[in-house]
Write a structure and sequence with these properties.
The chain has 275 residues and is of the alpha+beta class. It folds into two domains: 5-112, no CATH class; 141-274, no CATH class. 19% of the residues lie in helices and 36% in strands. The protein contains four helices and twelve strands; from the N terminus they run H-H-E-E-H-E-E-E-E-E-E-H-E-E-E-E. The chain has helices at residues 5-15, 28-54, 104-112, 224-228; strands spanning 82-91, 94-103, 141-148, 160-166, 171-175, 178-188, 191-197, 213-220, 235-241, 246-250, 253-263, 266-274. The strands form two sheets. It has a ten-stranded antiparallel β-sheet with strand order 4-12-11-10-8-3-5-6-7-9. The termini are far apart.
Length: 275
């Protein structure tokens, strides 16, 4: 919604408690009042909420208009991309919108800092129970980003490992150490899921390394018939809920966990725990 200039001036005069009819012209002093007593307070409020959630993982100076723009890191390649946040406000009988531009760079930094991740108090724990007489199928489908040489992977708390996989690239669907399909990440109800993107050539990729590290989005347990029926545009529902940590696997054993994030258009994982 675009407000006419007369309404903008009136809204500003109301904010600075001036008689709009008597002092109709918008002065530089009016703009400074609006900035110092309203815009800065609004930014400080949002900054306080962000810092309270992520602590020192993000620099509070990012939100200080006198030191830098709140639009993001100058080194970020997404600096020119913005998201608009509109806040409806009412002062007296005058209603309007305050539009706040948030750069993709700042959104990315907030993502890496874990701002959008559920906290312990946000999470609801679920446990799926099975019939005692039902034959259990062990996890046999593994959704992996890629596998790595363990000698070149060093895990430590808080470290971000940038993976060799663009966010637009499909992940590997691994069965018996063989990539049988690739697929795009999606959410199916509350769980992670994979939509199969068929590629015949991938059926020839087999992992024969005895020692390896893989980053797994999640797992599933399918029957042989279900696996043979997989085709393009079919879905696999993973056991992991969207937002849960992902596992770092070394030769079949979990050696760490972390949160999947995006760093410069590339998948990454922020390490939370090292075992």
């Amino acid at each position: 919604m675009e407000l006419p200039w007369s309404s903008i001036r009136k809204l500003e005069k109301l904010c600075s408690k001036q008689d709009y009819k008597k002092y109709e012209a918008l002065t530089q002093f009016d703009m400074e009042v609006l900035r110092d007593f309203y815009i800065n307070k609004l930014i400080k409020y949002f900054a306080g909420k962000i810092v309270a959630r992520v602590g020192d993982k993000i620099d509070r100076n990012r939100f200080d208009l006198s030191k830098s723009s709140a639009s993001g890191n100058s080194n970020n390649t997404k600096q020119d991309e913005n998201m608009m946040l509109g806040l409806k406000c009412k002062i007296g009988s005058t209603t309007g919108y305050i539009n706040i531009q948030i750069s993709a760079g700042l959104i990315e930094d907030l993502l890496l800092a874990g701002f959008f991740s559920p906290t312990a108090s946000d999470k609801i724990k679920f446990q799926i129970l099975s019939n005692i007489k039902e034959k259990q199928i062990p996890d046999n489908i593994f959704i992996e980003f890629v596998r790595f040489n363990p000698e070149k992977v060093f895990l430590e708390f808080g470290k971000i490992l940038v993976l060799d996989k663009k966010e637009t690239e499909p992940l590997n669907v691994v069965y018996k150490n063989r990539v049988i399909h690739t697929g795009q990440v999606m959410a199916i109800d509350e769980n992670f899921g994979i939509k199969i993107a068929e590629s015949v050539e991938l059926n020839e990729i087999t992992y024969d390394e005895e020692d390896y590290i893989s980053i797994q989005l999640g797992t599933s347990a399918l029957t042989e018939q279900e696996i043979s029926n997989l085709h393009k545009d079919s879905y696999i529902v993973l056991k992991q809920r969207a937002g849960e940590v992902s596992n770092v696997i070394r030769t079949g054993k979990i050696i760490g966990t972390g949160e999947i994030c995006i760093a410069n258009d590339t998948f990454a994982i922020k390490i939370f725990n090292v075992k």
